[in-house]
Amino acid sequence: MWLRVLGSAAGGGYPQWNCSCPTCRAVREGTRPARARTQSSIAVSPDRERWFLFNASPDIRAQFEAFPGLHPGDDRATPVAAVLLTDAELDHTLGLLLLREGRGIRLHATEATYATLTSGTGVLTTLERYCPVEWTRVVPGQDVPLDGISYRAFDVPTAKHDRFGTGTDEGRVVGYRLTDDATGRAAVYLPGVQALTPAVLTELEDCACLLIDGTCWHDDELIRLGLAQKTAHDMGHLCIGGPGGSLEQLSRLAIERRIYIHINNTNPILLEDSPERRQVEQSGMEVASDGLEVEVPAR
C-alpha cells in the first residue's frame, strides 16, 4: 500500500494569502529554510494504479498536476477510484466542485458530513447539478472493502462549534484506519483530532504509519500572534507542544512512522531550522511536505 501526501497544510495553505505572520513571511521572502504547502489531502493506492482520495482540497487541480500518478488517460478516465471524507470542512471538500467535469464521483462520507454538504454548505447540492454522485454511507466501526484495501472509519469526538447545525456529533469528524488486503498492514489518517482519547488510541495500535493532526504547536498560537481569539482546541485540534500535547503522547507509541500533517501556517515546525522542528525530529516524528510518499511494506 502506498500513501501520497498531496497537500500537507491546514486550511488556507502555506503561506496563507492574507497572513504576514513570521512563518508566512519567512517562506515568502526566503529568509529561513521552509517549503510552501497546499491544503491537506492524501491519495492511497494498493498498486500505484488505482488511487483513493482522502479529502478534496481547494488546491486539488495543482495537486493532481504535481503527481503523474493521477494524470488522466487518453479517454479522460482518471485513476481516482473514490473520494473519502473525514469531515465537511471547506478546506476538505471544496475540491469536489473542481471534479465536476468527470463522469461521476464515488463519495464515502458519514451521514453527518453528507447532511452538512447538502443542507449546510450546499457543496453536494451544487455538484450534483453537474455530475452524478454515488454516496456510500460511512459508519464508524464498520469494515468496508474497497479494491485492494479496506477501511474502518472511527469517530473522533469534537466539541468544535457546528456552524451548520447537523444535529449530531456522531460522525462529524472521523479518522480512517486503512488495511492492505495483501499484507494485512495498516495505516491511519487522522488530520483532525481534539483529544487522543482511549478509543482513538486503540485505533492507532499496531499501525505501520500514522498521518496525524499537526495544526498548531501552541494551543494559544493564534492568540499569541494577535490573529484570532480562538485556541487550537476551540478549532477542533490538539496542539503538538507542551505537557499533554500530541508530541508527548505519541512518543510513547510503537508506530514505525509517525508524521504530522494538516499544519497551520502559523506553526513554527514549518521552519526547518526552528527549535520546535528539531524537537519533533528528535522524538522520531516527521513533518509532512507536499509530494511525500510512504510505502507501507509487509512485515
What is the CATH architecture descriptor? 4-Layer Sandwich
Shape: globular
Q: Please state the CA-atom Rg, rounded to the nearest Å.
A: 18 Å
Mean pLDDT: 96
Going by helix content, strand content and strand pairing, the class is alpha/beta
Largest sheet: 7 strands, mixed
Helix/strand order, N-terminal first: EHEEHEHEHHEEEEEHEHHEHEE
- In the sheet with the most strands, the strands line up as 6-5-4-3-2-1-14
Q: Treating each run of at least 4 consecutive H or I residues as one helix, how many helices?
A: 9
Amino-to-carboxy terminus distance: 12 Å
Within CATH, the superfamily carries the name Ribonuclease Z/Hydroxyacylglutathione hydrolase-like
Question: How many structural domains?
Answer: 1
CATH class: Alpha Beta
**What is the tally of beta strands?**
14
By CATH, the topology is: Metallo-beta-lactamase, Chain A
